[in-house]
Amino acid sequence: MDAMLIEGEAWTSSLYRTLQKAVEERKDSIDVWYESPAVELIQDAKTKIIHGVKVDNKGTILNICAKNGVVLCTGGFENNMQMIQDYLQLPYGYSKAARYNTGDGIKMAMEVGANLWHMSNVAGPDLNVLNPETNTAFAYAIQGKKDSLSTGFATQNVIFVGADGTRFTDESLIPNHGHVNFHGSWTHMPVSLPAFAIFDETARLSQPVYPTWSEGNVEEIEKGLIVKADTIKELAEKIGVDSDKLQKQIREYNSYCSNRKDPIFGRAKDTLKPIKKAPYYAMELVPSFTNTQGGPERNANSQVLDVRGHVIPHLYSAGELGSMFSSIYQGSGNLGECVAFGRIAGQNAAAIKNDTTQESVMEGKIALKASWQEPKEIIPRSGEYLGEDRGIGGPIKVLVAMNNDEITNIEIIYHNETRGVSTNAIDTIIQSIIKNQTTQVDAVSGATVTSKALMNAVKNAIEEKE
Amino acid sequence: MDAMLIEGEAWTSSLYRTLQKAVEERKDSIDVWYESPAVELIQDAKTKIIHGVKVDNKGTILNICAKNGVVLCTGGFENNMQMIQDYLQLPYGYSKAARYNTGDGIKMAMEVGANLWHMSNVAGPDLNVLNPETNTAFAYAIQGKKDSLSTGFATQNVIFVGADGTRFTDESLIPNHGHVNFHGSWTHMPVSLPAFAIFDETARLSQPVYPTWSEGNVEEIEKGLIVKADTIKELAEKIGVDSDKLQKQIREYNSYCSNRKDPIFGRAKDTLKPIKKAPYYAMELVPSFTNTQGGPERNANSQVLDVRGHVIPHLYSAGELGSMFSSIYQGSGNLGECVAFGRIAGQNAAAIKNDTTQESVMEGKIALKASWQEPKEIIPRSGEYLGEDRGIGGPIKVLVAMNNDEITNIEIIYHNETRGVSTNAIDTIIQSIIKNQTTQVDAVSGATVTSKALMNAVKNAIEEKE
After folding, report:
1. Is A68 near chain B, with CB under 8 Å?
2. B133 and B114 within one domain
3. Is B121 in CB contact (< 8 Å) with chain A?
4. Are B95 and B153 found together in one domain?
5. Which residue segment(s) compose the domain that B407 sits in?
6. Hey, CA dihedral for B246, B252, B256, B258, is it positive or negative?
7. Do A161 and A274 belong to one domain?
8. Residue A404 burial class via C-beta count within 10 angstroms: exposed 0-12, middle 13-18, buried 19 and up
């Protein structure tokens, strides 16, 4: 669900709070478990019935038996870079809402034979700044006029340019959930990457880029989120864009401001503000989205279907995971779908099933009853020490080998960080710690949380020794 | 593989012919079966080993045992409209090469637990005319200058417009396998749909749109592939585009021709030819592609992987089915990949496996040996007659119920036509035949082959009676 809706910064969160309250009022009959992600569906190989889920409860795998049904509502794959590349026609992209939607529900559904649908549809991309602390994009749009959806920063003395230093969109138009009216048809907004917002001193002083940013965006310049230069030429060199093309683009754009007309993209007249007061600034923009739409195919009963269109017995889904919205612009229909199909899925999953008396269930009885299973225990040998800290995806556990005070090896025992930038960061940090013999090494850009958690885990292991 | 490469119209087909010859020379050891599509992989539920495939040999299901491995190389999903919507961010699109790639290999791989990758990458879209006889797009590009890849028609007195009657691209630039340099980054060509080529009498007489079209494109006007009108206003009304916007766009474009400069999309100077000689013409363009890239994930040994990254034993893949090309522009790398990974997959699939002596194989021995299985036989009751003809996807079999000379019901016993337009056509034709009591009804536009095959099948059933 939308970050603003939950955090209440722009709207009142009334829908979310109503649902939350209804759950709390039923706490005698509804157990809510946090930090217990499902890791696998339990399926009978013969009947294909789903009998429950395996969950990872702080490192312990627990089999949860479901008498009548399981509802998958794990959200989409906003934080899974491999799936973004595989399904969204983008080389990269970032969530601006949920931080923990990793596509695990899609993988679990595939593992029990589900068909997928609507995989390339997404409520995005629009362009925002990446927050390296969270590996998600800052929320709100910056395109479009200032309102409850947009900070309006891009309507100041700001243009967006693509990889070659030229403009590719109307900065004054807010992309509706990442969709634009492209010559009469609503399509995903075409973007050139890497993309940058280019602006001048007047724009910097006009407003914080985001409501959470500092006055004059001073802190964000210090943090490196904004690059500063005295000339456009120097700015172009700093961000790796052709400086002749960027200078030409700014001259052209400034002439549109003088003429009060943008003949190329039709930017709104009252937002045609020239870029002319030094120093100049650049800010990298990334494709961002509120949510994905793809996932297991479901029917009108919220039942999940296999690749031949047959129901997978006792498996249901709701929410953005396998949403009914295909390639069209879904508007604000996502919430309506969540409520309607959440209710349908819940009712049907709770309904008593007659097919559970089958032989297969009896056969599987012992394996399927709820039971705590200890994971394989790691017993450190002499000179080895265990350490742990929390990353973005949960605990990061390490086994550090020491020879007196020298760190000779670091082995990852457990992690659930995002594939791609975060897992690459793990390799980099390990090499760096061993090379420099200190846990105070540089964090990997774009994976700060993972980097720091890993350093802390190693530090904790070393302290274990002492 | 590319249509031109096989049919030899533009190039020499030398690669394809070399491979074909090599297979023919080995006919003592290689059996080639046509009209026997694989319909399911045979997998051991416990070991996950792939032991063979079920094939549909003209209506009879045959289990083919594979001693050491199965190589999936079924191509992509160019002809599966549902998958195009689900994976390509397009509401519709058409193959301009293979006619029989329906995504069946992807479904079969999913059914045995394969992970998918690179699903949204496609060698397209570029814009071409749909051939309603084949339900594929005419091959060659029409954008770009005339060469071995393009007919160059769009560089005549022709513009492309989108749903609102405005231009959205540089008609003089050929999209490289559907990719364009979008402000410095190579992306899939953004398209506005429905799209139209708008041209005048001078363009019509300049050349056939495609090499297979008639002189002056006269036959294609008669067939309705080209719409003709005396004025732009009338033309706009015929194709359902805002006539004021289209007239304004043509005036603007003609002014670029006078000024020898297209300030919006930078169309090449020598192609700026005005649209001014009546009558005027419009031709609908559809997104088209040579091939898709997505499918089951494979490793460097051409082994297919499951959603947790484990090898599915004895299953290999090659070609565009799960190509290694992710979100980047694949250039002409597809053929290189076909050759390299075809060889790797073949060698590894043929290598003798030690894991086939497992108990599970013995257990499954009877079920897994090659054996002919008769499909459920349809025995017509009194007043019912069987008929058959060939559609695009293979045989269409019908059971026609007659009351004396009246056709009272038509039941489809078997068909493998494309989901979407073709299956909708089946319903329409059946209703139409029953309503009009004749098999001479209008074919459904876009599904002519399916329509005619169905009419013939019913006709054959009626003749069966007589």
Report:
1. no
2. no
3. yes
4. no
5. 384-465
6. positive
7. yes
8. exposed
Q: What is the largest CA-CA distance in chain B?
A: 80
How many structural domains are present in chain A? 3
In a domain, A256, yes or no: yes
Interface touch B182/A162, C-beta < 8 Å: yes
Long-range residue pairs from B262-266, CB within 8 A, at least 24 positions apart, any chain:
B262/B170, B263/A263, B263/A264, B264/A263, B264/A264, B264/B167, B265/B167, B265/B169, B265/B170, B266/B170
User: A297 and A284 in one domain?
Assistant: no
Exposure string of A122-160, with b = 16+ CB inside 10 Å and e = fewer, is: bbbbbbbbbbbeebbbbbbbbbbbeeebbbbbbbbbbbb
Question: What's the pLDDT tens digit per position in B336-372?
Answer: 899 999 999 999 999 988 765 444 443 433 333 332 3
Q: Is A179 in CB contact (< 8 Å) with chain B?
A: no
**Set of chain B residues whose Cβ sits within 8 Å of the Cβ of A306:** 111
| Nearest C-alpha in B relative to A295 | B86
Tell me: pLDDT of A326 over 90. Answer: no
Same domain, A270 and A194: yes
Look at residue A362 in the predicted model and tell me its pLDDT: 37
Give the integer Cα–Cα distance in Å for A157 and A271.
Answer: 8
Are B110 and A111 a contacting pair at CB < 8 A?
Answer: no
**pLDDT exceeds cutoff 70 at B286:** yes
pLDDT of residue A45: 83
| pTM of structure | 0.78
Contact criterion met (CB < 8 Å) for A187 and B192: yes
What pLDDT score does B346 carry? Answer: 95
Q: Which of B85, B163, B191 sits opposite A326 (nearest CB)?
A: B85
Smallest Cβ–Cβ distance between A111 and the set B89, B113, B183 belongs to: B113
Asked if B259 reaches chain A (Cβ–Cβ under 8 Å), the answer is no
Look up the CATH number of the domain holding residue A225. 3.90.700.10
CA closest to A167 among chain B residues: B183
Contact A187 B185 (CB under 8 A): no
A395-403: strand order across its sheet? A384-390, A395-403, A406-414
Within a 13 Å sphere around the CA of B163, how many CA atoms are in the beta-carbon half? Answer: 11
Residues B257 and B183 in one domain: yes
Q: Is the ipTM of this complex over 0.95?
A: no
Q: Is residue B368 part of a domain?
A: no
**Across the A/B interface, how many CB contacts are shorter than 8 Å?**
137
